Q: What sequence folds into this?
């Protein structure tokens, strides 16, 4: 399971962030009350900044989409210089 993927669609993206903040468990005053689907991605029982550090260090946040966008921009850039002699 992808760290951060709380809606179980196989990717960690902004829809997961919206959903996890709707659970209202982020840095609440209740110890040990959070699950993976409520943002406890490091499995210490609490949803806090250390869960975000883990999720972003792993690097799955919208990664495939960002790579495709970058490739499309490079391919379609009308101002990009083309190699000489070809």
A:
């Amino acid at each position: 399971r992808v760290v951060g993927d709380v809606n179980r669609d196989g990717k960690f993206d902004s829809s997961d962030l919206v959903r996890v903040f709707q659970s209202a468990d982020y840095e609440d005053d209740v110890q040990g009350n959070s699950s993976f689907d409520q943002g406890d991605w490091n499995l210490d029982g609490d949803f806090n900044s250390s869960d975000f550090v883990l999720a972003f260090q792993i690097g799955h946040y919208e990664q495939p989409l960002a790579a495709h966008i970058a490739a499309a921009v490079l391919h379609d850039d009308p101002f990009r210089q083309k190699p000489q002699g070809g």
Observations:
- The chain has one domain: 14-76.
- Residues 63-76 form the longest helix (14 residues).
- The mean pLDDT is 83.
- The chain is about 40% helix and 0% strand.
